[in-house]
């Protein structure tokens, strides 16, 4: 089968809207929307190919770009590697230079457009932030203060962990947090059941993930419009997460951490190899801080998840 390496871009404007283009009706996956881009040519670097394609297709010059998600997909007629970068700065006015319709859409509108089958994780990656805060075990007032501080500092995805609370106290705290901050951030909650509040997403432990994948076929336990994520510790669990249809995963522990001193860390190289074979946005967790974001992106991750590394940061 033909194998091709495609560079594509999630391009953002100053209001964080994303540019999508419509593929010509007679092209492969014709009539569907796409992230602009095209095939890497022999001798080109990934960034060079991206710059050339976006210049040809949209008439823009890329100033700043970084890897967002890199995945492989088998269509019946070809095998593609979709190597998607986020473009945060460019010059020129983006337009359909090859006559294709283009549109700036919000993250919120993105899921309502029809994309090729390979694009589902890219749409999730485009909607997710690069930092994922997990709350530490501390008193409720401290949790609330810390969340407010984090949101003010630009954090928009938060997992309420609180292993010190029993289920009643945990649910009461979740309710309080959603009431206060539900409009300003996305909250991922834990538990045996999907969170009752439909604004919240559900984060599965690796044990829950394994149990849900035991009886085939695994079925996604939450509707598509709510976020579903899972904790993974190895390649097998990442594969299970894909099969279950989660939106994103957290892979840990990357480095040694105080919260799990007994676990043996994956290290950057092994994590990178695992992400090469994964079709999900994945946050790396374990001993990381905001300073590790570039390394995480280069390893193929969505970004970093952290408790201490993102809590009470200036
Ligand atoms: N650019 C782009 N291609 C995608 C996306 N999703 C997806 O499955 N593809 C597939 O990846 C391949 C990209 O090729 P392309 O048609 O953009 O390549 P190109 O710009 O070099 O075009 P050309 O071959 O006409 O010169 C196609 O098979 C297309 O169906 C996407 O979001 N953006
Ligand atoms: Mg193209």
UniProtKB/TrEMBL annotation:
Binding-site positions, 8-oxo-dGTP: 23, 28, 34-37, 119
The entry's keywords: DNA damage, DNA repair, DNA replication, Hydrolase, Magnesium, Metal-binding, Mutator protein
Catalytic activity as recorded in UniProt: 8-oxo-GTP + H2O = 8-oxo-GMP + diphosphate + H(+); 8-oxo-dGTP + H2O = 8-oxo-dGMP + diphosphate + H(+)
Highest taxon above the source species: Bacteria
Gene3D superfamilies, per the entry: Aldolase class I (3.20.20.70), Nucleoside Triphosphate Pyrophosphohydrolase (3.90.79.10)
Enzyme Commission number, as recorded: 3.6.1.55
GO annotation (BP), single: DNA repair
Residue ranges annotated for the Nudix hydrolase domain, each copy included: 1-130
MF GO annotations: 8-oxo-7,8-dihydrodeoxyguanosine triphosphate pyrophosphatase activity; 8-oxo-7,8-dihydroguanosine triphosphate pyrophosphatase activity; 8-oxo-dGDP phosphatase activity; 8-oxo-GDP phosphatase activity; metal ion binding
Residues engaged in binding Mg(2+): 37, 57
Cofactor names: Mg(2+)
Pfam families: NUDIX_4, TMP-TENI
Similarity remark: Belongs to the Nudix hydrolase family.
NCBIfam families attached to this UniProt entry: mutt, PRK08999.1
Name of the protein in question: 8-oxo-dGTP diphosphatase
